[in-house]
């Protein structure tokens, strides 16, 4: 074909049309190379063109920088999968799974098993959840908590993508009480500091009525977080949002203390604070000029989660104002252990419910407390956290029928006959055993920096369980 005809035919085709070009591959002329393309050093001197399929007008441009809603990308998934980022995500996912299989196949046996399983669960509509997901499920006998944790660390180190840098093991370990005390959540993001500060001692003799009232109640406490440069960067609107979050989500008032450049305070509390209280407050919080203090007073059960929530919110606000707090290329793995085995029921605090599930074994040294003070018992439950996201959880299980029966009947007030098959199995010589499940989609989404797990699943479902591309199910 003549060069002019070839050029006219190619220029007349819509983008994303499928063609076959026959010609001579040669180096591009000097100065015309494109280092951003894998084929950027070559070109084809076309001799013939065959059109396999002409593309219709598409619902969106096939360019990475063109923003498309998640619903649109799910509806036209066959187009979204042409995205280089989606293909990169799915390739990394595939490589990670293959390496995990290779590692686990080398350690499995009759007394242990693993599966990479597709699961269905009634999940909410959060970006890190969907009804259909994949998990790496590991179960082992004759194992303890340390053994499970070491196995998972070895598997992740072996399968970790090389381009993300080496993974250091063992991972940091933190107790549930330490996580709540320092971060206000049981899945802390340890890439940045901004820990919670206990100010109860600072105000132990205060004359400020609402602070005295808070300290007088059961589990009463005064807690704070110091936001570096918060007074300098946060707008009035930002501060209002923080107060609204405290009020709307936690039913709690929030006291703001801004430290001016000259070290003086800007706060409704200023005129109520004595000179020693002001000095002790700034010293305990290590507050500097330009910092912001968020102070909450009340029950620890409310105050700690409140400030844990605001800590993350403040990090987002600081980053929106150009400050760098959370390194997106850093991966901070963390084990959270020693969770309470039981928690008070929300509708009836006098009764107890399982914090994890009713089959979790108590810590050996806490077993005697099951008979006298079960609310103080710690469980052999462990969560794996990555950059503030829970990516896995498991436990060592109860393996004695008598202990399992006591938990079900006497503590949880459940009908043990519903689990008679389990009790009979445990009474037939069941060995000590435990396991863990890792959320594969969530792990990969954190590794690649995706905002939603649906960006690392080839054909995800909506939060209502629908496939927006095929309109299934149709009822």
TrEMBL record:
PROSITE patterns: AA_TRNA_LIGASE_II. One of its GO terms (cellular component) is mitochondrion. Belongs to the class-II aminoacyl-tRNA synthetase family. Type 1 subfamily. Residues 112-460 form the Aminoacyl-transfer RNA synthetases class-II family profile domain. The keyword Cytoplasm does not apply. One of its GO terms (molecular function) is ATP binding. Signal peptide: none annotated. This is Aspartyl-tRNA synthetase 2, mitochondrial. PANTHER family: ASPARTATE--TRNA LIGASE, MITOCHONDRIAL (PTHR22594:SF5), ASPARTYL/LYSYL-TRNA SYNTHETASE (PTHR22594). The keyword Hydrolase does not apply. Keywords: Aminoacyl-tRNA synthetase, ATP-binding, Ligase, Nucleotide-binding, Protein biosynthesis. It holds the Pfam family tRNA-synt_2. One of its GO terms (biological process) is aspartyl-tRNA aminoacylation.
């Amino acid at each position: 074909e003549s060069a002019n005809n070839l050029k006219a035919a190619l220029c007349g085709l819509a983008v994303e049309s499928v063609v076959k070009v026959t010609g001579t591959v040669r180096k591009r002329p000097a100065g015309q190379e494109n280092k951003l393309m894998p084929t950027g050093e070559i070109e084809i001197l076309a001799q013939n063109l065959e059109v396999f399929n002409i593309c219709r007008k598409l619902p969106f441009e096939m360019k990475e920088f063109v923003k498309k809603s998640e619903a649109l990308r799910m509806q036209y998934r066959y187009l979204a999968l042409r995205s280089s980022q989606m293909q990169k995500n799915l390739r990394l996912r595939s490589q990670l799974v293959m390496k995990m299989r290779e590692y686990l196949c080398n350690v499995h046996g009759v007394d242990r098993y693993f599966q990479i399983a597709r699961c269905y669960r009634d999940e909410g509509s959060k970006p890190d959840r969907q009804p259909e997901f994949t998990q790496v499920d590991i179960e082992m006998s004759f194992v303890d908590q340390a053994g499970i944790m070491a196995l998972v660390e070895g598997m992740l180190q072996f399968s970790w993508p090389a381009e993300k840098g080496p993974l250091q093991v063992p991972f940091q370990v933190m107790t549930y009480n330490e996580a709540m005390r320092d971060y206000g959540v049981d899945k802390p993001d340890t890439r940045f500091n901004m820990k919670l500060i206990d100010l109860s001692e600072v105000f132990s003799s205060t004359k400020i009525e609402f602070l005295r009232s808070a300290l007088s109640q059961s589990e009463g406490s005064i807690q704070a977080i110091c936001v570096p440069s918060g007074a300098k960067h946060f707008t009035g609107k930002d501060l209002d949002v923080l107060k609204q979050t405290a009020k709307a989500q936690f039913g709690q008032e929030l006291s703001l203390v801004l430290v001016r450049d000259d070290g003086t305070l800007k706060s409704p509390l200023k005129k109520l604070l004595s000179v020693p209280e002001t000095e002790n407050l700034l010293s305990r919080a290590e507050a500097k000029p330009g910092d912001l203090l968020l102070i909450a007073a009340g029950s620890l059960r409310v105050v700690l989660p409140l400030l844990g929530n605001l800590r993350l919110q403040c990090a987002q606000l600081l980053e929106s104002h150009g400050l760098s707090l959370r390194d997106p290329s850093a991966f901070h793995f963390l084990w959270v252990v020693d969770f309470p085995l039981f928690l008070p029921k929300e509708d009836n605090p006098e009764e107890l419910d399982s914090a994890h599930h009713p089959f979790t074994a108590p810590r050996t040294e806490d077993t005697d407390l099951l008979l006298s003070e079960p609310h103080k018992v710690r469980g052999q439950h462990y969560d794996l956290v990555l950059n503030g996201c829970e990516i896995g959880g498991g436990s060592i299980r109860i393996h004695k029928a008598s202990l399992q029966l006591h938990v079900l009947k006497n503590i949880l007030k459940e009908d043990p006959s519903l689990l008679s098959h389990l009790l009979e199995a445990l009474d037939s010589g069941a060995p000590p055993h435990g396991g863990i499940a890792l959320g594969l989609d969530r792990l990969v989404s954190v590794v690649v920096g995706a905002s939603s797990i649906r960006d690392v699943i080839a054909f995800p479902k909506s939060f209502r369980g629908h496939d927006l591309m095929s309109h299934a199910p149709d009822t």
